[in-house]
Amino acid sequence: MPMIYDLANPERFDRLARLTTPWMAGLAAASLAAGLYFALFASPADYQQGESVRIMYVHVPAAWMALMCYTAMAAASVTGFIWKHPLADVAAKSTAPIGAAFTFLALVTGSLWGKPMWGTWWAWDARLTSVLILFFMYVGYMALWSAIEDKTRAARIAAIACIAGFVNVPIIKFSVDWWNSLHQPASVLRAGGPAIHPDMLTPLLLMGLAYSFIFAALLLTSMRAEIAERRIARLELAERAPSEVAVS
Amino acid sequence: MRAFTALVARDIKLAFRAGGGAAQAVMFFALTVVIFALAAGPDRARLAALATPALWTAATLAAMLSFDRLFQEDYDDGALDAVLETADPLALAVIAKALAHWLSMMLPLIAASPALAILLNLPGAAFWPLTLSLLLGTPALSLLGALASALTLSLRRAAVLMTILTAPILTPVVIFGVASANAGATGDPRYPSTLLILAAFSLFTCVFAPLAAAAAIRFNAD
Q1: Could you write out the DSSP letters of every residue in A118-148?
Q2: pLDDT tens digits for range A182-239
Q3: Is the minimum CB–CB distance between A171 and chain B shorter than 8 Å?
Q4: Which of B161, B175, B215 sits opposite A160 (nearest CB)?
Q5: Looking at chain B, which residue has its C-alpha nearest residue A139?
Q6: Which of A94, A124, A185, B110 has the fewest CB atoms below 10 angstroms from its CB?
Q7: A140 at the B interface (CB within 8 A)?
Q8: Burial letters for A180-203: b for 16+ Cβ neighbours within 10 Å, e otherwise?
Q9: Cβ–Cβ under 8 Å, residues A66 and A103
Q10: B181 pLDDT above the threshold of 90
Q11: Cβ-Cβ contacts under 8 Å, B52 against chain A
Q12: Is B24 exposed, middle or buried (0-12, 13-18, 19+ CB in 10 A)?
């Protein structure tokens, strides 16, 4: 895998990221525009939910991203933990705030959708509850990163926390589903539900695509910022004590 | 094995000596229940309905408050270095520490729970299911606490951070703990399966938490 090893060099990664970020941002803007057009104008209102079904096009892809980001974070954590690669640590660290933002978006839009549908801003619905717990897991991960001063140690410790959380995600999901089935006899939406109409699938997938590109653009930018920050810190340290620190 | 029992015995001895905190955890548990009762009002039927969730909440909070004792003091006074030198594997030492924590912090709390359940007017049929759910569920709390304590070892005043870290992953214990206690009290046919799930989570935690905690201690200690 020569490609991966090439990318492992922060210098080369930086060059590649600088090249691809505008493309990612452009694709994000294009697919977001198309997705929003289909979501807001070119798709029918639901016969049950009315116009509020359009919240789904913002909400569902955000929930997908919330899970995807945590998975990506766990994958980067495993990579960083096993091969001790700084770039994987940076990727894991940079994914967290983006994932937390998508999770927050999913929570807020879910709540906004819940008001007309359930008549309440918050129902202890199984999905909403497990997403809320996921949000706190992101918060804990970020808090751990910011609490430990030494970057290498912070990366290892945060990776352990992330992997431990990831292992527990299915159990938490299961427990919350089970808890919910005990307390709530029937949900507004039937399990399974009606098959989704193609007119509604188009905006949903376009929005999902847009979110993925937004994620890529933000991640690359954030990783470059983190790498630059570390380089500055290293240079400053080298300036202060030139004999003690090797300049890379 | 001798090192294992020695570590457990030492930690329990320390926990029950002056300033060890075993009594404090029980007091915290009791006072949380009292504050809850004061906040909920004296309506006996309502208190009875909320007794199980209240006791589980108080037990979880008391456990969280005591997590920083698991490794922090040993780290500060250098005793942890001795454990690191001699423990093989380190995960086993983590299990010893968690077991000592459970015996000295959780077990007194479980022993005190029937008295507090009386204060909350819990029906008699619910006593054993509640005690059993606490017995099966709280080991997972101690083990996850060991993990959180290991993760935040090199930090000062990490108590709040530790609650943020542990709260999400210990939600299954609370959910299944309360569910099991309720199912047992009402004669729900699902009662045996809730006990099994609770025990399964504690056993699963007993496998993965010590390994993760041992890795975290190694990274934090050097």
Answers
A1: HSSS----HHHHHHHHHHHHHHHHHHHHHH-
A2: 655 444 444 445 456 777 788 888 999 999 999 999 999 999 999 998 889 888 888 8
A3: yes
A4: B215
A5: B164
A6: A185
A7: yes
A8: bebeeeeeeeeeeeeeeeeebebb
A9: yes
A10: yes
A11: none
A12: middle
Q: Give A9-13's long-range contacts (Cβ < 8 A, gap of 24+).
A: A10/A86, A10/A87, A10/A227, A13/A87, A13/A223, A13/A227
Q: How confident is the model at residue B66 (pLDDT cuts 50, 70, 90)?
A: confident
pLDDT tens for residues A109-146? 988 888 887 788 888 877 888 899 999 999 999 999 99
**Average pLDDT across chain B, whole number:** 89
Residue among A157, A172, A178 minimizing CB distance to B216: A157
Query: Per the CB < 8 Å rule, is B212 touching A160?
Result: yes
For chain B, list residues whose CB is within 8 angstroms of any CB belonging to chain A. 147, 151-152, 154-155, 158, 161, 164-165, 167-169, 171-172, 175-176, 179, 201, 204, 208-209, 212, 215-216, 219-220
Nearest CA in chain A to B201: A171
Domain ranges of chain A: 42-182+198-240
**What tens digit of pLDDT does each residue of A55-107 get?**
888 998 999 999 999 999 999 999 998 988 889 999 999 999 999 999 999 99
The CA distance from B115 to B157, in Å, is 33
- Nearest residue, CB atoms, A167 vs list B152, B208, B219: B208
pLDDT above 70 (res A6):
no
B102 pLDDT exceeds 90?
Answer: yes
| Domain boundaries along the sequence of chain B | 2-221
Answer yes or no: do B169 and A139 touch at CB < 8 A. no
